[in-house]
Structure formats: C-alpha cells, structure tokens
Write a structure and sequence with these properties.
The complex is a heterodimer of chains A (114) and B (118). Chain A has 114 residues and is an all-beta fold. In chain A, 0% of the residues lie in helices and 50% in strands. In chain A, strands 2, 4, 5, 9, 10 and 11 form a six-stranded mixed sheet that branches. A five-stranded antiparallel sheet of chain A has the order 1-3-8-7-6, with no helix packed on it. Classes of the chains: A mainly beta (114), B mainly beta (118). At the A-B interface, β5 and β10 of A face β4, β5, β9 and β10 of B.
Chain lengths: 114, 118
C-alpha cells in the first residue's frame, strides 16, 4: 500500500514565527512532490512543487526534500493569520500506467495565532 | 477562478436518484481526473482520463460512472448511491498525461461539488 503520511494537527504557530509542516512517503521511486493549501470549504490550490533533493524557496515558502529519508517538508516564514488552512502533501506514486494521479496525505491543519 | 469549472456546486440526492456532475476545463489540458474528499480521509483518486481515454479506475464502485467526451469535459454519472458516498467530489486537470515520473507535471483542481446522499 503506497502511502503519504502527515500529522493531522492542529499545529498552532504564533504570528510571525516559522511554521514547519512535515510529510513522509512510502514509495522510494517517487519523483514529484507537491504542497497544496486548502481553506475550509474550498478546493486545494498548489503552492509549491519540488523534484530534487534540497531546498526550493518561493517567497515566504520553502520546500525541502530528502529522498533518502523519504521526507518532504514545507516551511512558512513570517506566518500570517491568512496562512491558517489545511496543507496537503501530494506525491506522484508511479503506478506504471500512463496518466497517473497524485497520492495525497490527510493534511495538516495549521492555525496561525494573532 | 482556477480554469476548471464544476457544476453543480451542491447536490442533494436520494439513494434511488440518478444525477450527474459536470466538469469543464479552460486550460487546454489533456488529462482530467475525479477525486473524492471525505471528512478525515485523504483525497482519493477515482478516475484518470488522458486524451479522452480512461487510463485508471481506482477500484471505484460501478454506481459511479465517468464519461469524457473530449479533453475539455468530464462527467461523473451517479446512480443508486449510498449515504457514505456523501463527500466533496473534485475534478482536476493537468497539461499532459498525468503526473508521470520526472515529468514535473502537476494538476489543478476545480472548486468541487458537494454531494449529500439522503
């Protein structure tokens, strides 16, 4: 069973601090990793993608990937109340077929406290 | 506006009804997907279409029947559903055939259709 694991939270972080979200995955051959943000009652929106080991920065967001440890994380610097949402980790788990979808974790509920 | 439009946004249906969910993407993508999101469960991939051809059926019960007449439109036909089928159904699309290994391809979601089965 190919899985993506996240701590469901809630993770409570004070405004202005760094929020750290973590994700592990079971399929060692996975190559594509994504973070989606989902506000309550809304659909997921893509915020970061990462394909190579190391860090990738985009504004206040940094994605980190360690394929040896099968671990991907998302850091949010200078957290704002508007960052309060559920963050979904998604991994391409190649099934050998043509058009694969993504395997998602359950998501981490992040609360930024003013 | 995500470029992926789903209708209806909310649907209440009885267990003996037949209804359909519709999805249209305006992004020029070639692959389309149906996902199911239930409370406290991960997003579940249901169906994948690539260039109108179904390439994945993730062990979905036959009471859910997809249809993809062209690369821009995707339907999910519903009949004799159960209360546990109540969920948010999300349509998504991607530029080319799925999120293949090393492709860097990713998917974009519609706003979803909230389904309640009574």
């Amino acid at each position: 069973q190919k899985e993506v694991e996240q701590n469901s939270g809630p993770l409570s972080v004070p405004e202005g601090a760094i929020a750290s979200l973590n994700c592990t995955y079971s399929d060692r051959v996975s190559q594509s990793f994504f973070w989606y943000r989902q506000y309550s009652g809304k659909s997921p929106e893509l915020i970061m993608s990462i394909y190579s080991n190391g860090d990738k920065e985009d504004g206040r967001f940094t994605a980190q990937l360690n394929k040896a440890s099968q671990y991907v994380s998302l850091l949010i610097r200078d957290s704002q109340p508007s960052d309060s949402a559920t963050y979904l980790c998604a991994v391409n788990m190649y099934s050998g077929g043509g058009a694969d979808g993504l395997t998602f974790g359950k998501g981490t509920h992040l609360i930024i406290q003013p | 506006e995500t470029g992926v439009t789903q209708t209806p946004r909310h649907l209440v249906m009885g267990m003996t009804n037949k209804k359909s969910l519709k999805c249209e993407q305006h992004l020029g993508h070639n692959a389309m997907y149906w996902y199911k999101q239930s409370a406290k469960k991960p997003l579940e991939l249901m169906f994948v279409y690539n260039f109108k051809e179904q390439t994945e059926n993730n062990s979905v019960p036959s009471r859910f029947s997809p249809e993809c007449p062209n690369s821009s439109h995707l339907f999910l036909h519903l009949h004799t559903l159960q209360p546990e089928d109540s969920a948010l159904y999300l349509c998504a699309s991607s530029p080319r055939g799925g999120v293949g290994r090393n492709s860097g391809n990713t998917i974009y979601f519609g706003e979803g259709s909230w389904l309640t089965v009574v």
